[in-house]
Task: inverse folding
């Protein structure tokens, strides 16, 4: 037995318990901050974000805390498509079934979704770089005509200036198969790829972004007007999804950070070769 007075022992034990309670409260506060900023995060991403911020935690503990404090996010598995593949235009083969990009601007994926407002719908077209999952082009419109997808493509080309041979992948919807859209792709020397008809897995990456957008942004805001959409969607894409949201497929870092790390690595290799 240690020669420690019983009163001292209980005093030290009380202090340790108090310290533990304070630390637990601080951790709960931090988790709540993360959930408030990124409402779609589950236990895995919350744990990764905490570790990035210097917290020494494990997923089981985070799961317990989130369950006890009603912070678990439950996602309903439902998705509505906007693809109209009943058209006379050419359908291209799927070039990306086994293709894995090793750098930016090797494979772009695209898709369209809708956002409900009080007076109807707003349509969103996006283009992602498959290497980093970054949204590189997008457009919003009350019309689902091919001008929508062309605007998103124009934005992506202006921002990225891809070299000849970049693969552009989409579904077989008329907005992607139209003469004007295909012309813009060929003028910029893209390889054109399309999903097989009725196979949602062929364009899973783009559809995954749309699910994230719906569950982590659209369903959390009461969009009433087109102006509401024009204000929130660009903010979510640029400031949340590209800059802050952790992506499991790229090592639980945001797309902007992933691309910056890749660029730095490439610069180091280039310098070493000189």
Result:
């Amino acid at each position: 037995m240690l020669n420690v007075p019983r009163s001292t022992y209980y005093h030290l034990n009380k202090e340790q318990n108090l310290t533990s309670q304070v630390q637990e409260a601080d951790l709960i506060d931090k988790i709540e901050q993360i959930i408030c900023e990124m409402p779609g995060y589950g236990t895995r991403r919350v744990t990764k974000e905490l570790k990035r911020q210097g917290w020494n935690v494990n997923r089981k503990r985070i799961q317990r805390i989130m369950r006890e404090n009603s912070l678990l996010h439950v996602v309903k598995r439902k998705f509505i498509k906007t693809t109209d593949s009943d058209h006379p235009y050419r359908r291209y083969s799927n070039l990306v079934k086994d293709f894995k990009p090793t750098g930016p601007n090797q494979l772009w994926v695209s898709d369209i979704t809708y956002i409900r407002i009080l007076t109807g719908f707003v349509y969103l077209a996006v283009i992602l770089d498959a290497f980093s999952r970054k949204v590189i082009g997008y457009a919003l419109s009350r019309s689902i005509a091919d001008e929508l997808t062309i605007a998103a493509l124009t934005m992506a080309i202006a921002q990225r200036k891809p070299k000849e041979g970049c693969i552009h992948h989409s579904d077989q919807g008329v907005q992607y198969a139209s003469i004007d859209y295909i012309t813009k792709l060929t003028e910029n020397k893209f390889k054109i790829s399309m999903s097989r008809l009725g196979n949602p897995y062929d364009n899973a990456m783009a559809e995954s972004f749309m699910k994230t957008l719906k569950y982590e942004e659209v369903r959390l805001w009461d969009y009433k007007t087109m102006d509401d959409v024009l204000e929130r969607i660009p903010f979510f894409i640029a400031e949340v999804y590209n800059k802050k949201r952790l992506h499991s497929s790229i090592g639980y870092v945001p797309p902007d950070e992933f691309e910056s790390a890749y660029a730095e690595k490439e610069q180091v290799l280039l310098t070493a070769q000189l």
The two ends are 68 Å apart (CA to CA). Residues 10 and 16 are 10 Å apart (CA to CA). DSSP finds nine helices and five strands in the chain.
